[in-house]
Amino acid sequence: MQLIQRDNLLQQIEQAFRINRIVCLLGPRQCGKTTLARQIWQAHGKTRSDVGYFDLERPSDLQALENPDFILPKIIGLTVIDEIQRRPQLFPYLRYLHDEHTEQKFLILGSASRELINQSSESLAGRISYIEITPFSASEVDNEEKLWLQGGFPRSYLLDSHDSMAWRENFMRTYVEQDLVTLGFSFQADVIQKLWFMLAHYHGQIMNFSQLATSLGVSQPTIKRYISYLSGSFMLRELKPWHENISKRQVKSPKIYYRDSGLLHYALGINQYIDIFKHPKAGASFEGFALEEVIRHSRVSSDSCYFWATHNKAELDLLILKNGKNLGFEFKLSEAPKITPSMEQSCEDLNLESLSVIYPGQREYQISNKITVIPLNQIKNLFT
Question: What is the CA radius of gyration of the chain?
Fold first, then answer.
């Protein structure tokens, strides 16, 4: 299968090693973390036969790190530990190695965000750099339509449409039946599976936890906990509302998005590109796809990303706080987006530095002093 070179991410990893000797790659399973780790391994002069590359999905490697003191201090240079959430007790030991063996570097990979970060931040504060690895972005591939339809997971993107849909079906079944269990989450498999498909119809909407809980016959805390599992393992994005001390009443529930458009389309039963535009969720699908592109290229954490909405229907799809500036984004599945009262109000109320309206066209044009319409394929230029 074709290998798509991800030079930008490789550069980010090497740059992170210049700051800290422990670098952690976080991202969903099968998004390409292991491929990147192997490339870094080779770039550091390592071969397959060298000791120091541990894949904790292999029983022999998992067993080898049962007593890390027997092996890790003896490794020279780079050590790679893949799926480290299977051995969370390694984090305090990595702190010891970092402080006592200054010639060693560690590249650790994990498929869970919150639990992994909580574990490592307690023991490795000031010693570790985090890089979130996502599936392919539009700047990394040459077929934007295929990326939107099939999503950015490497195997899903590289297969033809029929095989890609089969891959995504198998991916989600394995994710629920095995991956969530491996991450240590406690849940009812049938409920979380139903929830996953129901959330496809909430994609891009403000969450109604009560409605979901009633539909599934469980409590609201259970729904919130299950959604936290899905977002904590990079399947969903919970976009928090932005609150400011202004007079207008503002929405306080999060919006929910599938982070990968291909998984959304699988859940909605969309098999062909033309079928996206026939579906009632077409606009929401484009919104989520473009929103993820913007957040990737902005290189800000999820804590710096919000939406804004008031009860009198003024709204902004995405607000990013970056370098002390408020940056606004709207996403329009339209041939020629026009200025709206809501755009003008968000510029004023949120003191936006700029508002970029992302659309699937080819021409960039300005519609007011602060508002510019930007083609989807030019998102990468917004943050250079």
Answer: 22
Domain boundaries, the chain: 7-132, 138-383
Is the confidence at residue 249, as pLDDT, over 60?
no
CATH 3.40.640.10 fits 7-132, yes or no: no
Average pLDDT on 175-196 reads 88
Q: Is the pLDDT of residue 247 over 60?
A: no
| pLDDT surpassing 70 at residue 246 | no
- Tens digit of pLDDT for each residue in 118-127? 666 667 888 9
319-378 per-position pLDDT tens digit: 999 999 999 999 999 999 999 999 999 999 999 999 999 999 999 999 999 999 999 999
3-state secondary structure the chain: CCCCCCHHHHHHHHHHHHHCCEEEEECCCCCCHHHHHHHHHHHCCCCCCCCCEEECCCHHHHHHCCCHHHCHHHCCCEEEEECHHHCCCHHHHHHHHHHHCCCCEEEEEECCCHHHHHHHHHHHCCCEEEEECCCCCHHHCCCHHHHHHHCCCHHHHHCCHHHHHHHHHHHHHHHHHHHHHHCCCCCCHHHHHHHHHHHCCCCCEECCHHHHHHHHCCCHHHHHHHHHHHHHCCCEEEEEECCCCCCCCECCCCEEEECCHHHHHHHHCCCCHHHHCCCCCHHHHHHHHHHHHHHHHHCCCHHHEEEEEECCCCEEEEEEEECCEEEEEEECCCCCCCCCHHHHHHHHHCCCCEEEEEECCCCCEECCCCEEEEEHHHHHHHHC
